[in-house]
Design a protein that fits this description.
- The protein has 122 residues and is of the alpha/beta class.
- It is built from 4 helices and 4 strands; from the N terminus they run E-H-E-H-E-H-E-H.
């Protein structure tokens, strides 16, 4: 299965770097591949340039748009994502180790595929 993590961002380069690093440290179950789609919503703090330097990483995609708000950025990320499962993550929410595995396990508990929301402490 391919899981896509969609991260909208706007002028939070320092936090975004920590988020991306934490996502990359996640240990994946053997049957899961991961794609990370970051949508830069018109940042002016160096985010665009930093994201472009990250595209060498497998499964990492960066999109850019003029500032249109986080909802549009999320929607654009979903449109671009290839995953069977879409997981939204904030650009200031650094996931703990095991976050992705725990999230995926919640989805596995339900035999009926379809929309499902899994929330954690925010």
């Amino acid at each position: 299965m391919l899981a896509s993590v969609v991260i909208p961002t706007f002028n939070r380069l320092d936090q975004l770097q920590a988020v991306i690093a934490a996502v990359r440290r996640q240990v994946l179950p053997p049957d899961i591949d991961l794609e990370v789609v970051v949508v830069d919503d018109g940042s002016s703090d160096g985010t665009t340039e930093w994201l472009e330097s990250q595209i060498e990483y497998s499964g990492f995609r960066a999109l850019h748009q003029s500032n249109s708000g986080p909802a549009r950025a999320r929607n654009r990320g979903v449109e671009a994502a290839s995953g069977d499962l879409i997981i939204f993550l904030g650009d200031d929410t650094v996931p703990q180790p095991g976050w992705l595995t725990a999230h995926l396990e919640e989805h596995r508990l339900f035999a009926n595929p379809g929309p499902l929301a899994v929330l954690g402490y925010t």
